[in-house]
Structures are given as C-alpha cells and as structure tokens.
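Q: What changes when magnesium ion is included in the input?
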Amino acid sequence: MAKIQMTTPIVEMDGDEMTRILWQWIKEDLILPFVDLKTEYYDLGLENRDRTDDKVTVEAAEANKKYGVGVKCATITPNAQRVEEYHLKQMWKSPNGTIRRILDGTVFRAPILAKGITPYIPGWTKPIILARHAYGDVYAGVETRADKGEKAYLVVEDEKGNVREKLLVQDFAKGSGIVQSVHNMDASIASFARSCFNYALDVKMPLWFATKDTISKKYDHRFKDIFAEIFEKEYKEKFAAAGIEYMYTLIDDAVARVVRSSGGILWACKNYDGDVMSDMVATAYGSLGLMTSVLVSPEGNYEFEAAHGTVTRHYYKYRNGEETSTNSVATIFAWTGALAKRGELDGNADLVAFAKKLEKATVQTIEEGKMTGDLIPLFKAEGVVPQKMESRAFLKAVAEKL
Ligand code: NAP
Ligand code: MG
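A: The predicted holo structure follows.
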C-alpha cells in the first residue's frame, strides 16, 4: 500500500512519562505504517526543557504559529518534588501556559463518545464541547480583608492620576468583612468571542454563551455586548450559511438547558464558569482518557492534545517492567485532530479520510468490547463482555481494526 503523502509538517511536541511511551507506540502502530508523516519535532520532555532553559517550549509554540497545526503530548508541570526528582535548574512554568500565552488561544474540550459508555447524564448522546475564557476575573483578582469601621472603594484614575470615579463598595461600619476586585480586557473578550465563533463554524455546532448580565450590568454585560457586536458584524451570515445558531442566555438558564439537552453544543464560558463546568462535563462523560482538548487562536492556529496528564502512577509501573492498561484514546484523537486539520488546510482529502478512519477504528474497538481498564466499570452493552487490554495490546487491536 502506498503511504499517504503530506505537504506541510505538523508541529510535534513530545512530552513526559506514560504519555511519552504511548506517543511513540501510537506513531509506530497507527500512523507511520499508513502516512508518510512529516513533522517538525520538539522535545518538550522535562529533561530537554531543563537542558534548553525552557527555550524549546517557546520555539515549539512559535513553530505552531508558523505552520498553524500542532499536536502535543502531556507534559509534567514541575513542582518542588519534580525539581528534586529531575534535578532541575529551576521550577519551569507550565508548558501549556507558555503555549497558550504565545498563541493567545482558547481551549476547547470535547469528549469522545462510544456506544456502551453511557454518560452519567444519559440524555447526552452527542458531545458537549466546552470553551473556557482563559483570562481575568477572579484569576487576576485583587482582594483584601476589611476591619469594622473601614470603608472600601473602587477607584479609577486617568493617566495623570486624577480620580475619574470613586464608588463605595461597602461601609464596614457594622463589622469586618472581605472585598474583591476583578477585571477583564475588551481585547481578550473579543479574541475569546472570535475563537468561539470560528470553532463553532469549524465543527458546525450551535454556540451558547451565558453570563449573569442581569445582576452584573457593567461587567458581565460587556461580555454579552462584545459577543453580540462581533456576531452581528462578522459571523451572522456565516452561521446562517452553516445552519447553526448563536444563543445568548443567563448562566443559570444555560446550566438547566445543558442538562436537559442531548448535547451537540459548543458552550462558551467565562473563566470561573468554565473552570467549574469543564470538570462537571468531563466527569459526566466518563473518563479523562476520553477527553480531548484543542487550543485555537483567533488567527486560526490549532494545537491538539489529550486533556489528561502524564499518568505518572502508570509510568512508575511501566518503568518497573509491569504491564499497564493506560487509555491512549485521547492521545490518538489529538493526532487525528491534527492530521485532519492539516489535511483540511492543505486540501489533502486522503489525510482527512485517514484521520476519520483511525477515529472510527478506535471507537469501534471499544464498542466491540476491547478497552483499557479505566473504561471497564463504565461499559455496559448487551451481549458484549468488556475485555481489559494492556496499553500496547489495545493499540494493536485498533491497528488491526484500521
Ligand atoms: P493525570 O496524569 O491525568 O492522572 C491522574 C489519574 O487519572 C491517573 O493516576 C489515572 O488514575 C487517571 N488517568 C488519567 N489519564 C488516564 C489515562 N489516559 N488512562 C488511564 N487512567 C488515566 O493527572 P496527575 O496525576 O494529576 O498529573 C500527572 C502529571 O501530569 C503531573 O506532572 C502534571 O503536571 C501533568 N499534567 C499535564 C497536563 C498536560 O500536559 N496537559 C495536564 C494535567 C496534568 P489511576 O492512577 O487511578 O489509574
Ligand atoms: Mg477546574
């Protein structure tokens, strides 16, 4: 069989621990036999990040910007214990944070569905993709305590330091308390909005956005207005042509509607709502091993990855020569997402078709009862007895199906 050719390379970012092992096996078993794979390789494994003073992470992100499509393996975000374990020069920052800053993107998390694995909300028969705004609000908040008798104000000065506005937050005459101040940037909200509109068009799913603008008449209302203005000016016709809708509602209404829905929605959330709801949605769909994640920048650069980490506990077992049953599905889908997007941008229909076939083979393997240990307790299908596979054996089964 002739291998599928590629014209433009994908930016490949290797990672750490068990996912680094799976990464190699996925390429060997599922991609290299079929595709004449072109990648620009960056080793984001912790040792190489330390060796290069983390420059490799920045270079990889720049390359992702240059080529448009990247795929990333899970990486260790070092803490004090990792600094000791790897004898690091310093506690390097989260690679995902660095890449997100450089691409200025929004993260979309999407579950992979397979028959037999029923979400905790069984009505969710289609995926819910969650987009979380990654800037501001309480994550860049300023807060303090106030004693009895104190007053707290919100003060805005002009460039010369003249007070333009001074609002009383609270007079603590009756007793002590707490104060918090949060902000956001119009430009950040606008780029979040564009990322969401673009991604909705990409996946042809309706977009929902919600805040609490009835209560927060300046702050949350600004989010609502920016989304509405950009939609009217830039996306209304494109959405109509694609046959999808943009809906704005209140956050509590959105939560109720999402639970009652059958899925098939792209749900855009403010930073805190997204933090909370992404964990709720991910858990409801079953396993971290079935959750993919893609970072999309407003200019249309894509970085695909699995939503889970490096699965450290499994790696220590692997290093001891023990068998592991680590779920590789989200990492496979990170690769297929990148291959399909590359194919789409290059007009390479064979590459797109290959990615879709690999996804189908992966899901079918599970549906026929072959899966890793994390999925066994979730799987229920009449007449199918689930069989627990070791990490590599699962990949071989998918390869056979493919
Ligand atoms: P984790 O690697 O996601 O693993 C947490 C636990 O979830 C595992 O111990 C395992 O449970 C289960 N699990 C996760 N993915 C699985 C899979 N593919 N197959 C089977 N089980 C899976 O999170 P963590 O232990 O908190 O973090 C480990 C390292 O990953 C840390 O150094 C962290 O910095 C890094 N991390 C990286 C990213 C990223 O690069 N995007 C994201 C998160 C964390 P059992 O042990 O019970 O089997
Ligand atoms: Mg969270």
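Observations recorded in class: The longest strand covers residues 163-171.
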